[in-house]
Amino acid sequence: MNEVLDFLKSVFITAWSFLNSASCYIVISFVIAGIIHEFVGIEQMKKFAIGTTKISGIVATTVIGMIIPICSCGTIPLGISMYYSGAYLGPVLTFMTSSPMINPIALVLSYGLLGKEIATIYLITGFVAPFLIGIIANKFAGPELYYKPAYENANKQIQLEKEKKSFFSKIKSGLHWSFFELSVVISKFTVSGMLIAGILFSVVPQTMIQRYLGNPGAISLLGITVVACLMYVCAVGHIPFIAAIVASGAAPGVAITFLMAGCATNIAELLSIRKLIGKRAVILYATSVILLSEIVGYITNLLLPNFKPVLRYDNITHSISYANKFIIEFPTALKYSCSILLIFYSLISLYRYLKKKKY
Fold this sequence. Notes:
By secondary structure, the chain is an all-alpha fold. Helices cover 79% and strands 0% of the residues. The protein has 17 helices and no strands.
């Protein structure tokens, strides 16, 4: 009985830790998502080629995603809002890949802790991989290529153009949609995804993961990719972790594969894409990430056969102190408040589901 209680305690502590690390970014994303939904229409999407299958739209969302330092869970509200506002699937998945995979903070840390060779490959991969995923999504998507109701509503809005909303009315309408509709849907996947990640971390201790990842002969790159996809990985937070693994003897390709697959995918994100966009979208997304991370990891090992770890005290202190200038550290009370808000939203979603089942 005590073992069961200890296991449950470990699961909830781990899940709560994961949720706290992402909750503030998710709530901020709700605000931005509401504004995007209300102010960015079909015409603006087409103007920037995000509402088309043009390559320029994929390039734009790749660069935007690389600049914004936000976790993979934080990109969910933004990506879904873009999709529901008229963005095509390619740019949406491109943004949801590039934003969590690489950002200025992660790049600074990777240069200091992993070395210029791995960091350079990481930077190139951070642009090329999301770009290719966007092209693949646009090419092989079916009916989910774009959200048809967004275009139907756009036509209705043109007919009612005389009834224009004021600026503050749009803000109010956008936030109402985001915090009373989108948030309820997103939070149930986020909280449940964190719980699943907590279970995985409790069943498979991080020390065991590090031991197997530290021995390239014990597990294939595919196995590393699968482990990374199941874990909740933050590009910034896990760079010291993967640097320690590489320093312990892992091949350099392990670092790229782990950071790419882990940061670009997590259970909450995959569940959200599956439920809110479609099964084909999540298959295209997950398959592309896994295959590309495998290829890049393999190529990295070929390019760096005699790689020597650069994990030294001077590099650590310099890179971390420099990266701290970019990092926004939210107060603990705010993190807890945002986490409780997300749990509240998920309970509302659960209540609605049970009520629907009952009747």
